[in-house]
C-alpha cells in the first residue's frame, strides 16, 4: 500500500494534469467545452506542469564585479525622431525590445516605418517585417511619407521560422515586426495571436535580440478596453512598453511609455498625423487653444502636465436653459463624473443657478484632460457662461476643487506657470498657500484663491471690475 501511494505521488510530482485555454490562458482542473474567461468554444486542452528540478550547469564565464561591467553596451542611440527618443529615454538601446501598442489606425505603422527609414539613413541595416500588409502596400506608404532608404529591407512574412531566417541572412541592427500577433510558429498549436503563439514568438524574438545586440520594435494590438492583446507576460518580457494614443477625428497623437527599463515613464511625445506622414511636435500647446478675434464667454485656459511636459489647453463650457425635466450634462475631452461634481459644487457652494440648465463642456483640439488640476478652469468657464461675460484673455486657472468648495494645491506649479508665461499669459489663479515654495516667473501675476466663491470674485476683478467694485462674474 505504501509503495503504491509513493508511486502515485511520484507520478503526480512529475506531471500535474490540468486544462488551459489556448486563447486567453485560463486554467481549470477538468475539461470544459467553453472557456470560462473568454467564452471561446473548443479552445480548452490538456496540459501538464512539470515539477522536476533543473540540475546546476557548469559556468563558462564567472559573474564579474558589478563595477567591471561595460556600460557602453546600454547606451541609447537616437532614432532620428526626437519626440520618440524623448519617450524612450534618449533612443534605442542595442538588444532592447520595445512593444508599441495602440488602436487600429492610430498611426503605429506609419511612425515605425519613419523610424526605420531614419535609422537606415544613418548607415544601419534595418529589417521591416510586415505580417498584416503586403510588401507592395508598405512600399506605397513609404513612398508617400518619404521613408525610403538603401539599407531598409522589407519582407512580408507571418511564419516565425522564416522571420528568424531573414534575421540570420541580413543581421540587422534594428528589426521591426508589424505585428507580433500576426506571426505564428509551426511548432506551437493554435491560431496566430493566441496566448501560446504570442508567447513563443515574443520569446524567440527577444532571445535573438539579446544574443545579437539587435534592437527590436514590436507592434501590438489592443483589446476593446484599450489593454494590450495577448498574455500579460508579454509586457513583462519586453524592455519597453509604449502606448500610442489619439482620437480618430483629430490629428494629434500622444506616445507615452508605460514601462521603460532604460528611461523615465513620465515622458510624453506629441505627433501630428497627416496624409504625408507623422511629424513630431516639440511645442504642441498652440493646438489646444482656439483662435478668435474677440473674447467669448464660457472659455478658460489651464495648463496640464502630460508626464513632465506642460501643455496649455482651453476648456469651453456652454450653459443654456433646459426644456427637459432632467437637464443634460455632456462633456467631450473631460471626465463626465468630474464635471458633474463641479456643477454640484457650483450649485451648492457658490449659489450658481446651474441645477436646472443644460451644461455642455469640451476641450479644444481633441486633447483629453483627466487630471484634477483643470477643475478650477472648468469652474471659471461654467461661471463665465452662466452670466454670459468673457474672462480676461490673459488669465489661466490652476487648482483642484473639493466637495467642500475648497481649491487644493497641484503638483508641478513651477512648470505650469513658466509655460503660461512663455505663451504670453499675465495672470494666474492658483490655490491658496502654493506660492510659498513656488518661483513665479517674471511677467506673470499669481492670485491665490482658497475656495470657489473667492475664485469667481477674482476672475470678476481680472475681467475688468467697475468703479463700484462689482462685476457680473463676481455675483454668480
Write up this protein:
This protein has 476 residues and is of the alpha/beta class. It has three domains: 35 residues; 209 residues, Rossmann fold (3-Layer(aba) Sandwich); 189 residues, 2-Layer Sandwich (Ribosomal Protein S5, domain 2). It is built from eleven helices and 21 strands. Strands 6-5-7-8-4-9-10-11-12 form a nine-stranded mixed β-sheet, with helices on both faces. Strands 13-14-16-15 form a four-stranded mixed β-sheet. A three-stranded antiparallel β-sheet has the order 2-1-3. Helix 8 crosses helix 9. The longest helix is centred in the middle third of the chain and has 18 residues. The N terminus is likely disordered.
Question: Brief description of this entry?
Answer:
The chain is an alpha/beta fold and about 475 residues long.
Helix content: 25-40%
CATH class category of the largest domain: Alpha Beta
* Rg of Cα set: 28 Å
CATH names the topology of the largest domain as Rossmann fold
| End-to-end C-alpha gap | 88 Å
Q: Domain count, please report it.
A: 3
Global geometry:
elongated
Q: Which band does the percent of strand residues land in?
A: 15-25%
Q: What is the name of the CATH superfamily of the largest domain?
A: P-loop containing nucleotide triphosphate hydrolases
Query: Are there runs of 5+ residues with pLDDT below 50, and where?
Result: 1-15, 465-470
Overall average residue pLDDT: 87
Q: What's the CATH architecture of the largest domain?
A: 3-Layer(aba) Sandwich
DSSP summary, beta strand count: 21
Q: In which order are the strands of the major sheet placed?
A: 6-5-7-8-4-9-10-11-12
Number of helices: 11
Structural class of the secondary structure composition?
A: alpha/beta
